[in-house]
Design brief:
Blueprint (H helix, E strand, L loop, with lengths): L1 H20 L9 H21 L12 H17 L10
Helix pairs in contact: 1-2, 2-3
Length: about 90
């Protein structure tokens, strides 16, 4: 699932690059920040999962419901602690 999201982001950026070199109107440039945020939101929970594996020992990020739980828990911990997380915050 995550690889699919990242692949879509990479393909979208490649499409934007091709359009830029062909001088087609750059209507899609405003989407770049949205795609960057999407990539960050997709990668941060996986980084937390790898960093604090003992906290998430029963979760498998390949299962969408487990990934959703991991993402919610990670984003909540990041938001409440000024974007700094330790094992006790999770």
């Amino acid at each position: 699932m995550i690889c699919g999201i990242l692949l879509m982001l990479v393909l979208a950026l490649e499409m934007l690059k091709d359009r830029k070199t062909n001088h087609i109107p750059l209507v899609y440039i405003p989407l770049m920040p949205v795609m960057a945020v999407g990539a960050i939101v997709a990668v941060i929970p996986l980084a937390m999962f790898l960093s604090y594996q003992e906290e998430f020992d029963k979760l498998n990020p390949l299962i969408p419901s487990h990934y959703w739980f991991l993402a919610k828990k990670t984003m909540h911990a990041l938001k409440t602690n000024n974007w700094k997380v330790s094992a006790k915050d999770l």
